[in-house]
């Protein structure tokens, strides 16, 4: 009996990068591995889109279109190169206008892409109609998606086989043109039996020759079983990755799936020894990159807090950047509540980020005291219709805090009527800065906004996390610190230098020895988000940061009069803009920070007198 050949897409160079490295990988570093994978006989690759579009401008100081060109040149003219798009959001976190959606398809075709996998995190089919038509009109293959996840235990009302079959039927009824149908489980939580039932029903609903693709992650430890269930139900293709971007938050490894199918009726049509060689090249290419431990681990608790691999590691990296990684377990525990009360949108970008932002706020500020703007917009209908109605109490809080009314208007219609969105708004920004008005530049600004402009002006930041091997070696060889040796400093105050040395409870200040004791600061502190007043003799109040982040802008200058509650600064934290309000009325006596500066939790920002 002949075995069935299983098609697979290699996700290592897109989803793998997102799941392990937060999508922060330089093109020159991975091209040798791509070449080795090509030489091993792999000809179907995920090549961009999703977070690998914005991240190149935000963190890599690279152009995503140039990356796609290099990918095509390396993979060869016959390779099927696929990218990921988010319906009306295309490759941004915000929904876009019609002209931007159309340009997305045209530009990705221009820069070597073959196929676009197109999904909507809410499974709102209205968000797939126009975007899907644009993909086909541009001459690309359209892989339309039904997004999947498992609801946290004890929750019900969506994300079962009936829900997925109904979503697929809506796609068919809308006459969306497609070349393949994908069932995408970004969190890897869908129960394998449900995967089987869903694809079995889809196979009966679709034409006999319809191509069905299944996508999952290893995060919950069931990806191989889920892939096998999908194949048994009639799927034609699955997604697999390569080490070091495999397992854990990524797709299962090609080698692992090849082994799992041995002795079955299926086989991967590959030269497994050449794939092994390609993986060794890939490991060497990525050896300098910081590998987060959670990226390569199965997380048994993920079914209770569904978080896709790419979002999980991107968020933990941001927590590390901001010095609050210890809060991560609390945020994961808070996820269930925001998923359940938010209307059961699938935990995949951008909704997964909305969930995490709200969980972040619930941990940092207290449950539901601060609604994250994107999460609030989602529950109010600004991204489309959620699978089930959100909690009315959360909708009320979102409406009050964001000063927005609930809406049922389709996002595309609303965006087309918004003068701040679209290509003309992007064109004005380019003109204001005397930047070339190319299609690529227009699209970059429309989807990446201020950070896209910063890249085009040469002002973007490099945020790739690599390991300094020389520094590690030097640290390993350095003698251990002497605990009995004092810590010595030169402190400059008003232009005068003072010698300062700490040794246990003794402090030496310019030759004078004092005995001291150290204790936590009493009263209002950074941990409770309060503002600690300065000494009464100075009659000033300190403005503290209530969370870590990067200072985006200051809205005040020294000497300005401010009112209590007025936004004095704006921080960027966890992909959100967070205002820092004045704690009292008064005059700004001093500003202690500047835009672009990394701000610690509780850091002093200004003085009000």
Automatic annotation (TrEMBL):
One annotated Gene Ontology cellular component of this protein: cytoplasm
GO molecular function: 2-oxoglutarate carboxylase activity; pyruvate carboxylase activity
EC number: 6.4.1.7
UniProt key word Ribosomal protein: no
Keywords: Biotin, Ligase
Superkingdom in the source lineage: Bacteria
CDD domains noted in UniProt: biotinyl_domain (cd06850), DRE_TIM_PC_TC_5S (cd07937)
Keyword Transmembrane helix part of the UniProt annotation: no
Enzyme class: ligase
Name this protein carries in UniProt: 2-oxoglutarate carboxylase large subunit
